[in-house]
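Exercise: predict the fold of this chain.
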Amino acid sequence: MRVSAKAEYACIAMLQLAAHYREIVPVRIKAIADAHGIPQRFLVQILLQLKTAGLVASVRGASGGYQLALPPEQISLADIISAVTDRSPSSRSDPIALSSSSAVRAVRSIWHELQAEEQRRLDELTLAELARRAQETSGLSYQI
């Protein structure tokens, strides 16, 4: 699976927002960018796309920032990735023009199965599950 930097940044930003989901104060872009080394200008674009997709809400003003628009349990990784990834037909590379031999059909069948399985997993993995895994990982890193 190839994940763009943009999709990875989006998942990381959403994970940061999920960590502060129950808080009243929104998370500032600078806090997310600084905590994870994400270029702030790029993060602004990503958060706007996530807002357009209805996954985050912005709060304006001096104490403004971003918050999740939905509970983490209702946001899948597929939702996040599709919000920031151009999936238009022009963005996909056309398959190589090969004959329709049995070998070509068998290989392409496998690719389609793998893509379907990948999509199924992205659909079922929620932001809440990702947050749980992040907590487990951070807990392990502090053990002596």
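Check your answer against the key: The first helix runs from residue 5 to 19.
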